[in-house]
Amino acid sequence: ALVTSKEMFRKAYEGNYAIGAFNVNNMEIIQGIVSAAQIEKAPLILQVSAGARKYANPIYLRKLVEAAIEETDLPIVLHLDHGENFEICKACVDDGFTSVMIDGSSLPFEENIALTKKVVDYAHERGVVVEAELGRLAGIEDAVNVSEKDATFTDPDQAVEFVERTGVDSLAIAIGTSHGAFKFKGEPRLDFERLEKITNMLPNFPIVLHGASSVPQEFVELTNKYGGKVPGAQGVPEEMLREAAKLGVCKINIDTDLRLALTASIRKTFTETPEAFDPRKYLGPGRQAIQDMVQHKIKNVLGCSNKI
Ligand code: G3H
Ligand code: 13P
Ligand code: ZN
Ligand code: NA
User: Fold this and answer.
1) Is 6-302 CATH 3.20.20.70?
2) What is the pTM of this model?
3) Terminus of the chain with fewer CB atoms < 10 Å: N or C?
4) For residue range 260-271, what is the model confidence (pLDDT) as tens digits?
5) 96 is in an annotated binding site
6) What is the ipTM of this complex?
7) Catalytic residue at 81?
8) Residue 144 — very low, low, confident or very high, per pLDDT cuts 50/70/90?
9) Which ligand places an atom closest to the C-alpha of 24?
């Protein structure tokens, strides 16, 4: 069934686990993720970015997600990832999404509040939940000193004020994760002290972690071995994600790991069977690679197996 994340997050918070929010762009990606969730009996968030809507066409993506909902008995949230303005959030609410993100994190505090509040008012009236973001996502290496860190990472006092004034349902925070495959130059580090402070000040309130791919080294090695070039790719260690999931983090965003799993698999097929040109011959194994990766994530990292 198509659901909002309200109940999912309540249970995840109490059960000290997190729900995986996976970015979807085409049929094989959706099928790989949904099969994994089905095998693991895991609640699921499928998220669509503006870029995904542009690539696949909003109608195709929505219909593919509808097919997944029809085919399984899983609770599935259809979520807009990084909505940058009111209009795209409105379009998705009107389109049947059950959750939207308004990302005003690049705006000054008061403007972020005003924009978020506007989206919350529109969405709540229509039974849709809203995620917002406060703080700027960047690697801890980018924050060279304490004052810079304070300027980019989420300020706990501001987080409380932001949630109170907007009425938002969940909040993405910045504690050192970043988008993409190159998250840390040196040792991976996240500001867990800050996360705990935020969690303590906002009890029972769901926190979202963006930029949370772990960039499994097996995919990096396979990609590089079969003609790709992603040297030095590094993600958030699984142990840190487990730790975050035990705290107030209820939603963990994963896109890069899907891209790497699919790409590594396709590169391998291309190299090993150069004579193959039937797309099913390489998209099929790619879809399986996504399924295996997501299953591992659900079972061993997020802790949301058998939680439906
Ligand atoms: O946060 C970004 C997600 O990975 C989506 O990426 O905008 O290229 O679809 P995208
Ligand atoms: P990754 O790039 O770490 O997969 O993060 C995805 C994300 O945050 C989507 O909003
Ligand atoms: Zn993100
Ligand atoms: Na949690």
Assistant:
1) yes
2) 0.97
3) N
4) 999 999 999 999
5) no
6) 0.98
7) yes
8) low
9) 1
